[in-house]
Amino acid sequence: MNIRLLNSNENYPLELLLLADPSRQLVEEYLKRGQCYVAEIDHQIVGVYVLLSTRPETIEVVNIAVSEVMQGKGIGRQLVTHAIETARIQGYKTLEIGTGNSSIGQLALYQKCGFRIVGVDLDFFVRHNYVEEIYENGIQCRDMIRMSQDL
Q1: Strand-by-strand arrangement of the 94-100 sheet
Q2: pLDDT of 41-87, one tens digit each?
Q3: Backbone angles phi, psi at 30, to 5 degrees
Q4: How far apart are CA 73 and CA 118, in angstroms?
């Protein structure tokens, strides 16, 4: 698998990005300011993540997704590890990531990769114009669990 920065002349893998964040408006907004990385196997994009500088010395993974047919194969962990190393190489001191309260697998993965819970943005997914309610694992996704790690 190869993970690389998406070239400026390439289309964003929007369908994949929308798996992680169903708000097209939010995705398109942070894509304008962020760095989009793709994971490829045999020239097919199977994963994606977006880094966005949020404050001096702080960058955030604002989207990370793996195609549904490729989930459970360790690609998500490789994307997170790549994001950590990329942020470190770029000189950032802190890497942040957020996920929904119902995203049980992601919460476990991020903690295994060194992130710690630093806060909860209550009702984030209710306030931010998501067209439909989001449910995962039989739980309504309402709150953003904020996580961080020092690099």
Answers
A1: 2-5, 35-41, 44-55, 58-66, 94-100, 144-150, 116-121
A2: 999 999 999 999 999 999 999 999 999 999 999 999 999 999 999 99
A3: -80, -20
A4: 28
In terms of DSSP bridges, do strands 35-41 and 134-136 run parallel, antiparallel, or are they unpaired? unpaired
Cβ atoms of 75 and 44 within 8 Å: the answer is no
Average pLDDT of the chain, as a whole number: 95
Distance (Å, rounded) from C-alpha 19 to C-alpha 65?
6
> What single-letter DSSP state applies at residue 70?
G
Q: What CA–CA distance (Å, rounded) separates 4 from 54?
A: 21
Beta-carbon contacts of 12 under 8 Å, excluding residues fewer than 6 positions away, are 6, 31, 36
Structure tokens that stand for 99 in this block: 């996920």
pTM for this model (two decimals): 0.92
